[in-house]
Amino acid sequence: MTSPFGELLPGTQRALLHRIAVAQSEGRAPSVVAAVAREGHLVWTGSRSSVDGHAPDADTQYRIGSITKTFTAVLVLRLRDEGLLDLNDLLEKHLPGTGVGDVTVAQLLGHSAGLGAESPAPWWERTPGSLRPELSDVLGEQPRMHPVGRRHHYSNPGYTLLGSLIEAVRGASWEEVLQREILEPLAMDRTSAQTRAPYAGGWAVHPWADVILPEPSEDLGLMAPAGQLWSTAADLCRFAAFLAEGDDRVLSAASVREMRTPSVPAEVGEWDSAYGLGMQVQRRDGRTLVGHTGSLPGFVAGLWVSVDDGVAAVALANATSGPLTAVVAADLVRIVAEAEPRIPEPWLPLPEVDQSLLELTGPWYWGTYSFGLRLGADRGVELQPLRGTGRGSHFVAEADGTWTGLDGYYAGETLRAVRRDDGSVSHLDLGSFVFTRAPYEPGEAVPGGVDKEGWRGLRS
Q1: N or C: which end of the chain has fewer CB within 10 A?
Q2: 117/70 Cα distance (integer angstroms)
């Protein structure tokens, strides 16, 4: 299909179609639909179906399960950005009486609150939400499985609490807030809590025979913020573009970047994956993917974005244990990123330069380690090792003339230029580390001082 950005090459399109055809065939799914976006534009859609002559398209609704959690997390971050709560607030402050009020909002977002993975029986995904009318019915008699804040343990009840938190602070239902604050601004008019035709039916496929069984589709009630939504491949590509770049009508780029940042250590054996604030982070095929996966009886879904490549992909199927849609979506990103790598923007000089900043550029030394400092846009700077690997970071300029680290070891740390009485630069101070123009430059800047005899040879 065409787009304002230009369609993919025929060879790329065929590779994408082949990948989902294999997924539908080997995964034994009644249908699979997928879509790819590049630089925020939908550039490809495809589908495969077991019904001859009929296949879903990018506007056919599928249930997306836990991808719903990312929407819920966005709503919580909006409350934070409006100053209505802090991520370090205890749940009790905004939603009293739950019995687990000593966990923080951030711990719930990142699944480190120690709560159980599921609600008490019967299985909440296949039974009406009316069976769990109160939060106590969702949490059960023993809601805690682990010490608070000590480990990542995925929790569906945790996101039920976040949905109720949103309702308590906003004074409106989770579904109303979602519609008003995310779906309408992003023009996601094919995403909803209840089905809107056309939509796919959910099926179970027998593990030992090519026969199918319809799965029930329940309203999850209080559990809705953990997995209720129905959406389409096209709508989810719009959402993926937002997760890559932000949208000030919904959430700023800085807050979306915060969501994509790992919040707790990965489980042992899962060092290639982590969890941010309502978003999964995965290292695959040499690139970092962010997004979420989802499943409910009859449906599996995957959404991944490679921010560095400017590519997002969505894969949806209507089978309980069908294709590995998370793997399929990741493969679709890889196919496009490798076949048609991102074309960089033209290099342009800075519009203006402050000479006092320009004099800071060039080599600096932390002890004997060499670093290079480059001046960037908006008075920001970048400090990177000149040899091998090391603690490099990008820094954003602050109003007081300092810089704050954005990534790596120095994320959140303060960088400042220390000047002498005559205005010349003595050294850089980065979180107490001193960077000088020469390795162990004589003077008072280097902690512990420098040997007065200076550098020497073997026979000195």
Answers
A1: C
A2: 17
Q: Write b or e for each residue in 350-371: b if 16 or more Cβ atoms lie within 10 A of its Cβ, otherwise e.
A: eeeeeeebeebeeebbbeebbb
Residue 441, classified by CB atoms within 10 Å of its CB into exposed (0-12), middle (13-18) or buried (19+), is middle
State the Cα angle at 338 between 334 and 339, rounded to 5°. 115
Residue 251 backbone phi and psi in degrees, to 5? -160, 140
What pLDDT does 55 receive?
A: 85
Q: pLDDT tens for residues 249-260?
A: 999 999 999 999
For the segment 193-252, what is each residue's pLDDT rounded down to a tens digit? 999 999 999 999 999 999 999 999 999 999 999 999 999 999 999 999 999 999 999 999
H or E element at residue 425: strand 425-430
Query: Locate tokens 């029986």: which residue?
Result: 121
Contact 304, 237 (CB under 8 A): no
Which residues make beta-bridge pairs with 404?
A: 396, 414
Helical H segments across 260-343, by residue range? 325-339
Note the maximum CA span of the chain. 87
Q: Distance (Å, rounded) from C-alpha 263 to C-alpha 243?
A: 17
Residue 405 pLDDT: 96
Token pair in block for residue 131: 């069976």
**What are the backbone dihedrals phi and psi of residue 231, each rounded to the nearest 5 degrees, phi first?**
-155, 180
Are 191 and 229 in contact, with CB atoms under 8 Å apart? Answer: yes
Residues 6+ apart with CB under 8 A from 428: 360, 364, 373, 415, 416, 417, 418, 434, 435
Residue 224's alpha-carbon distances to 106, 158, 274, 321, 441, in angstroms, are: 20, 12, 24, 21, 62
| DSSP letters spanning 80-135 | HHTTS--TTSBHHHHSTTSS-TTSBHHHHHTT-S-B-SSPSSSPGGGS-GGG--SH
Give the Cα separation of 76 and 263 in Å (integer): 15
Single pTM value for the model: 0.90
H helix intervals, 320-427: 325-339, 355-358
Adjacent-strand bridge partners of 430: 415, 433
